[in-house]
Design brief:
Layout: H1 54-91, H2 95-130
Helix pairs in contact: 1-2
């Protein structure tokens, strides 16, 4: 089989222009419209539901009141301890006494953190009981 074509490859560059992607992209917003609006489901309220009963409400109020009272009592105790530590630091005559007073102040701060954390847990539990 003889062919009239040359077997050599044509390696010359083509004169055709190759399109290149632009560095600038045009913003084309797409607006999507809802076909319908669905209202969120409502929770039916039943009269005399257990959390709405006066006894349950009274229990929740009493527990919140006692929780706040214990927090106020802890506040007074910690304020007294902090004032004592501050007084010890002010009257300290040696470095050892100042360090001891500073450590006592840090212990009061740690106790405050514990009281606040415990109170936060109890308040969170009360809120969950109330459905909040």
């Amino acid at each position: 089989m003889k062919s009239s074509r040359s077997r050599s490859l044509d390696l010359a560059p083509s004169h055709r222009r190759v399109p290149r992607p632009s560095a600038v992209t045009i913003w084309r917003p797409q607006v999507v419209l809802a076909t319908s609006v669905i209202a969120p489901p409502t929770r039916p309220v039943v009269l005399a539901e257990p959390p709405a009963r006066p006894e349950a409400l009274r229990i929740h109020l009493d527990s919140a009141r006692s929780l706040l009272a214990s927090l106020a009592q802890a506040r007074q105790t910690l304020l007294t301890a902090a004032a004592n530590a501050e007084g010890r630091a002010a009257q300290a005559s040696s470095t050892r006494e100042r360090v001891s007073a500073t450590i006592a102040a840090y212990r009061v701060e740690a106790k405050l953190d514990d009281v606040l954390t415990g109170t936060w847990r109890q308040v969170s539990a009360l809120m969950q009981e109330r459905g909040l």
